[in-house]
Specification:
alpha+beta; about 40% helix; about 15% strand
Length: about 210
């Protein structure tokens, strides 16, 4: 290594150290800002009968959405698997990605014309007969937790349970039941990623069996 190369490498290492320090400062600042906005909890007896009816309806709507996503998954997988089995089709694999964006009601006091108004977002993947996929007929209600009114006895679909019980970071937080009442719409984005492999030497598309 020449002196000039050593100098350049040392400078690069210093820059990495500076970037790491800056990232840590930003992380601490983000944690501090997050602590300034604690999650608001609403006691069970603070919900009116109308609020409880809306939460029950939200669970029903999310169950309907979950069944819809299952139907889309089955239809897309049947189509794509048929293409993979076709030796004349270059497709060798695929992925189905889903983004659910939970949007504020139009009458919410915090609605902002310059914002997407997403209370939270969920990202997931679907792939046909995935054994890890949530079952449509399973009750995901947390039995160790008390829910207001009928919510304490009716089955909770996976999407509802995931919404109030799981947090995936600052941009994908869990919602309190009171914040669930603020949901007006759900933007559903389903993307299918087509995957193929072109062999440079032969100029041919490689079939799945050739890739295994």
């Amino acid at each position: 290594m020449t002196p000039k190369q050593r100098e350049a490498l040392a400078d690069f290492q210093y820059r990495i150290g500076d970037a790491a320090d800056a990232l840590e400062r930003l992380r601490r600042k983000a944690d501090h800002m997050k602590s300034l906005f604690p999650a608001q909890q609403t006691a069970d007896d603070d919900f009116s009968p109308e609020d409880i009816d809306r939460l029950v309806r939200l669970n029903d709507r999310l169950g309907y959405l979950q069944a819809y996503l299952h139907r889309v998954d089955q239809a897309v997988c049947a189509q794509m698997c048929a293409r993979i089995a076709d030796p004349g089709d270059p497709l060798d694999d695929f992925e189905i990605d889903v983004t659910l964006s939970f949007m504020l009601r139009e009458d919410d006091p915090e609605i902002d014309e310059d914002s997407d108004n997403f209370l939270t977002v969920r990202h997931t993947s679907m792939k046909g007969n995935d054994t890890d996929a949530p079952r449509l007929d399973k009750d995901f209600r947390e039995t160790i937790r008390r829910f207001p009114g009928p919510l304490d006895t009716i089955p909770h679909c996976w999407l509802f349970h995931d919404l109030y019980d799981h947090s995936y970071g600052l941009s994908q937080p869990a919602l309190s039941l009171s914040d669930c009442l603020r949901i007006g719409r759900i933007w559903v984005d389903i993307g299918v990623r087509h995957q193929s492999t072109l062999d440079i030497d032969s100029g041919e598309w490689q079939q799945p069996e050739a890739l295994s």
